[in-house]
Amino acid sequence: MKTIFTAIFLALFSVLAIAQTRFEKAKKTASEQNELILLNFSGSDWCIPCIKLHKNIIETETFKQLTTDHILEYVNADFPRSKKNQPSAEIKKENASLAERYNSKGLFPFTLLLNSEGKILKTWEGLPSESAVSFSNEIKSFYQKK
What we know:
Elements: H1 2-19, H2 22-33, E1 36-42, H3 48-58, H4 61-68, E2 72-78, H5 89-102, E3 110-114, E4 120-125, H6 132-145
Parallel strand pairs: 1-2
Antiparallel strand pairs: 1-3, 3-4
Keywords: Isomerase, Signal
GO molecular function: isomerase activity
Signal peptide: 1-19
């Protein structure tokens, strides 16, 4: 009898653990920490503007400071083409769901600034023309307005 209850408990726990996606975790953390969410749709191994966005903005210390300062939660919905770069099945499913909800046109790169409930505050289609500092400052200005 104890074994049956343990098995049921583990099965329920595993379902709940899988149901908690990266985006749901970001929303929860953003809500708890009073942060914004940056959702970025990219093709990390085929989209040149996506690669430039990550190199020139996302991977900079200026941008990373936004997460350190609890201004921002960052979620990357990546759609690589190469087999060696494919994410897990769960991540693929989540990325497809995010694309269905936020990127129905299939734009790459496509970046959205969201509040903790997932409401769109600002979008960037393609590679932002501003520097990492300007991009980060724009996010900070939205953070200060909320």
